[in-house]
Amino acid sequence: MAIRTGLRRRASPEVSIVRVAAAVIMRPDGCVLLAQRPVGKPYAGYWEFPGGKLEPGESAGHALARELKEELGVTVTHAAPWIAQEFVYPHAHVELYFFRVLRWIGEPFGHDGQAFAWQKPGSFDVAPLLPANTRVLAALTLPSICGVTNADDVGEDEFLARAERALARGLRLIQLREKAWSAARRDAFAARLLPLAA
After folding, report:
1. In degrees to the nearest 10, what's the CA dihedral of 107, 129, 45, 97?
2. At the top level of CATH, which class does the domain 3-140 belong to?
3. Mean pLDDT per 10-residue segment, the chain (198 residues)
4. Which of 53, 71, 95, 142 is deepest in the core (most CB within 10 A)?
């Protein structure tokens, strides 16, 4: 399931939207592949996630597979839609479809002569990074699994017992989402949950 984020700022009505598929290629150690934009393109020298423009009538998934084959010489075998967002640059209004690429065949090689670097989320050492990637870079530092409370359905004590077991097994993020509760009740429940997470 893709997460959709909002616009950076509105483009003028006469600016057309450029649709782009971008790959967050992830090694088993958690590192992701970044590519440096070549000379002659806007933002030359900036680092970004590999990918490219969708052709007319092409789906984002198909464009992703085609671009990675052309750009890196790799064949995608498992990719999942992740984040979709719009961003307005001075030269273009782009709609980006980010995919997590978890499996592929072949070793990445820059067919256009661009530089590539494997980077650990949260401690990238390449710069500058393309501005449209800011939200994706932040999302990469979050755990891949998030627990969501359902204490209203199962009861507070039962949920806390389940949460304690999940945290002991490695869960690192829980969203307290009890929409029917008052703020005071949510705060009181959070005060019981936080010591378990600590």
Report:
1. 60
2. alpha beta
3. 46 74 95 92 93 96 96 95 92 94 93 88 93 90 90 96 95 94 96 92
4. 71
